[in-house]
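Assemble and predict.
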Amino acid sequence: MPSKAGIVGIGHSKFGKRTDATIRELAHEAVRPALEDAGLAVGDMDASVIGIAGEEFAMQGAPAAVVHDYVGMGSKPTYRVEAACATGSAAIRTAWSLINAGLHDVVLVVGAETMTRVSSARATELMARAGDTRWEYPFGITFPGFYALMATAHMNEFGTTREQLSMVSVKNHKYGAMNPYAHLQKEVSLEETVKSIVISHPLNLYDCCLISDGAAAVVMASEEKARQITDTPVWITGLGAASDSMLIAERPTLTGLTGTKIAAKGAYAMAGIGPSDVDVAEVHDCFTIAEIMAYEDLGFCEKGKGGRFIEEKQSYIGGKVPVNIDGGLKSKGHPLGATGVSMAVELVKQLRGEGGNRQVSGAEIALSHNVGETGQFVFVHIYSR
Amino acid sequence: MKFGYTSWLPETELVNKFIEGLGNSKLLGTQCRKCGGKYLPPRAHCKCGSTDLEWFAIPNRGKVRSYTVVSFAPESMSRYAPYIVGIAEVEGGMSLMGQLTGVTPSTLKVGLLVQIVAHQPDTDRIVYKFKPA
């Protein structure tokens, strides 16, 4: 039985169009508060794990080396992790594994990305090349396009509606407006989200997450060290991971992510809990349909009932499982490498009772779900007090 | 000849053979002689690890499993936008991604029966596309 590695410090940069900073300064903006929160100096770190998804976006080859040096890690060992949009969660899983292997006791985990320096058409191009460049990219499929294929199938099979998709966006913007670190801190109405311009039918502008710059950091420690560092560690008690076929056409179903189901099963079993025990969740809402499928694949509701789950406000604070109450990728933003670490930061706040006006009262068990590509990388982590 | 409306990878022997098939109105996949695994689009190596694969032709008929109308295209595809990308299931349970043409908003639907035909989007490019059967 592995020991319980825990999180003892959290830090978050402002997400947004950050033309005032490059990836190194953004990382610093997240690392400093994480160290202060842990009451540690950078010299107390045994290693860093750095999650950055793309060189092209960072405009720097091997960008993790720059970040590691800039935050003052000096000659300590560092690992760069990449798992597309799930990079941050892969970094946390890597740090957990390194700690449990006994290689390091205290590890700094940084997730960072800069994405807004390239045009939207260029960003769409770069992300399209993360699809299969042999048999998918040549047809002009985009990332919104991949999820639109899932949305069409889901709407056709289960009767999920245009309004239900938009309701996810309305919820996430409602909570994002309350999060000072969020990229787009404004509420949106159902009417304007339903009528926004089409990006890839049936998905429109308000179904799509933001292209953002930002960073997040956590300090992770072994059980023994964590107890020495703080009275309020948050433990990672379950980890699940899975993948799926590279070609979306090869999958037997388009209405869910098989990787999510497998990863969730593994994480629940390891933590000894079930979906009904989750008090608060962060799920991968790169597109509104992705959040609806996540409700189903994580077991928060039955398959096909995800649309009704949001319509009944079951994912609001006060519902069955509050989901993405920091704004999610939709309103908080989605700087690829930062996202998974940002999910951990939010859940640690919730479990410590530091959620402010977004606090889920009495939250004891939390879940993060982070997807890279269209399900080729899936990580589910369970956190508890 | 290059494969696709746009491309990033160089053509390989496998892709050239697939392109040659398309030029003769044939949709070619590969099948593993060891485990029987079938691949469309074709692969040079089987997922079982075998390198012993042979070519076979698939009837050029399919049924649409899903679709999307791409309005906001990648940089390299902007001259074609908007366009429809779909997934069609062919005989034997395999599915292909491709662009769909010859449909209207009222005829475009999941379950639509399509023909899979060769198409030259440019003088030096070939691709297959789906059109209503």
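Strands of chain B lie at 2-3, 27-32, 38-39, 53-58, 61-70, 83-90, 95-100, 113-122, 125-132.
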